[in-house]
Amino acid sequence: PHHSGSKQTYWSLIMVVLMDPGEDPEDTLRAHRSREKTFIFDTVFDQHASQEDVYCITTQHLVGDVISGYNTTVFAYGPSGAGKTHTMLGVDSEPGIYLKTLTDLFRAIEETRDTEYSVSMSYLEIYNEMIRDLLNPSSGFLDLREDSRGSIQITGITEVSTSNAQEIMQLLTRGNRQRTQEPTATNRTSSRSHAVLQVTVRQQSRGSDLVEEVHVGKLFMVDLAGSERASQAQNHGKRMQEGAHINRSLLALGNCINALSEKGSRAQYVNFRDSKLTRLLKDALGGNSRTVMIAHVSPASTSFEESRTTLLYAHRAKSIKTRVKRNLLTVSHHIAQYTGVISDLRREIQRLESQIERREEEKRSDAGVRAAQGTPRTGQIRAQLVRAFKEQLELRHSLVELENASIELHMDASRHLLTLADWEHETTHHHTPDSTPERDEEQVAAHADGDTGKSAESHEEALAREEVNMLLAEQRKIVALKVGRGAGHAGLEQRLASARKKASQLEELLPRQAFSEDQREVLRLLCRTHELELENTELQASSLRREHLLCQKDCVIQRYHQHRQLCEHVIQGQRQLIHGKAVLPATQRLGLSVVIFWKDRRHQLPAIQPCPPSLPVTCIAPRGYEQRVCVRSTQHTQPVRCLAFAHLPV
Ligand SMILES: Nc1ncnc2c1ncn2[C@@H]1O[C@H](COP(=O)(O)OP(=O)(O)OP(=O)(O)O)[C@@H](O)[C@H]1O
């Protein structure tokens, strides 16, 4: 029942009862074999639901999500002729979800001030496992590719930017006319392909001077081809072949839905690669997307089987859990800024060069000042001077790029080290409370033997360490490129210094007497440009350094936080011992319980290692650790309950 008291109708139906048409209510003997089934969904619409009702309840809430940078998907699923295209595209008098969503999206964007948005859309169909651009059908079949981040791209697809709802409806209707439609036994205008309308919303806001934040929200609206039973569809030849393709991709979709809905209870391999449709909907199905599935069924008794399979699919799809995260891209401005400075300077040089040329031509035509013109040698020197200046610019550009790469590498390495530290913290945390003296002794012995504890080290940790080593090696290479590798391998810095020297030598070579005032002016301008460029570069470098410092400070804060947690954990343990809450193993009760911090040389993080209770205690720091506290005691005749040493890093 729906209440139409207000302007908007609210639907509170959530149950579908699928009744078996072959069932005789009088036949009590077959009652227990009834195929009647009840399904519960988030919402159910009956034949009275308007396009507005369906849109408001299923899709409207996704508009805000897309604007905030989330991936969202709506797809219409169901047998042929059940009304999928009607729901998604609709007709001019009753437009469907496509147009209503886009209208709301543009309205929401218009209402938001101070933020820059750009919206683009593409419309494609998957017909017989081939992708066609519905906005530019003459472009042939397009390729589907997965980029390095795992997101799906369609190469060469037309992206249209428009905010006019009318224009969009025209585009979509025109696009839909290009869609492969054929009359079938079940639908006069049956869509023989899957249609996908993709809307991308980019929201740009300047977070700081250096880093720009970009939220990219994607909305997929999918009108699937109708599933059909070959026997009922009575299709032949081409139609049958299409039907087979449609059914195959829908089967692949069904398999994915099955596998995904069973995830969690038991591990399942989800094969998205079986069809273009599932590859395209990968994120929408089980990844980073808020997804709405609108299942369509016909109330006709002749459609009982289709309705049953559709409802079963939809029911399974309901249990799929996706992991949604906001798509945030941070665009580094470092390189852009430096490149900006350099191209400004290039423009300046060009201006100076044309000025020189212009002046020279003016002088050539002016016979009176011919004497003041430089000799051919002067012209050569001047050309060399400009070349030297250009060389300096190129070198500076390369240096800036190297600096940026080095910083990125450093930050990557820091992140890896923090993860490793976390891992170490976790393992220690894990080992300490339930460590037995025997195990502790084994561990220390293993460390003493020079074993770094590789057996205990997980494969992931080994990989992470390898990655850190690679990053550090890369960093060393960059340093070598910058400062050089001894004789014969001059670094960029050295080359820049010699280019500077060369330029000043050339300036010295210019014959002073033959200098016209114009030439002097040109050189003065060149010098000024040099100075400005230097100032600029220095400013950029210092802001880069500042940001790097902030980043480093973040890392340090995080490290201290981890360290504090570790200390709290130790203190808590010791308190428990003091108050007698924790029971020590018999051997330990008579011995010395010592907690020692070792300082990790590589990333300056403390590692906690309980010592064996047997006395005397000799602590050997594991390889890679710097020993900060060493406890040696032979004095304990009395049982010592607890001693704790905590050596905090400076
Ligand atoms: N709720 C509705 N109100 C009015 N007409 C409808 C409704 N649903 C469907 N129709 C009409 O029924 C016919 C079939 O619907 P539609 O083409 O949307 O089905 P479909 O599921 O997309 O089929 P196929 O998978 O074969 O493409 C169309 O003429 C459509 O206008």
TrEMBL record:
Belongs to the TRAFAC class myosin-kinesin ATPase superfamily. Kinesin family. Residues 1-320 form the Kinesin motor domain. It comes from Rhinolophus ferrumequinum (Greater horseshoe bat). It comes from the Eukaryota. CDD domains: KISc_KIP3_like. SMART domains: KISc. Plus end-directed microtubule-dependent motor protein that regulates the length of motile cilia by mediating depolymerization of microtubules at ciliary tips. ATP binds at G78, P79, S80, G81, A82, G83, K84, T85. GO terms for biological process: microtubule-based movement. Residues 356-367 have a biased composition (Basic and acidic residues). Residues 181-193 have a biased composition (Polar residues). Keywords: ATP-binding, Cell projection, Cilium, Coiled coil, Cytoplasm, Cytoskeleton, Microtubule, Motor protein, Nucleotide-binding. InterPro entries: Kinesin-like_fam, Kinesin_motor_CS, Kinesin_motor_dom, Kinesin_motor_dom_sf, P-loop_NTPase. One of its GO terms (cellular component) is microtubule. This is Kinesin-like protein. Residues 174-194, 356-376, 426-461 are annotated as: Disordered. One of its GO terms (molecular function) is microtubule motor activity. It is found in: Cell projection, Cilium; Cytoplasm, Cytoskeleton.
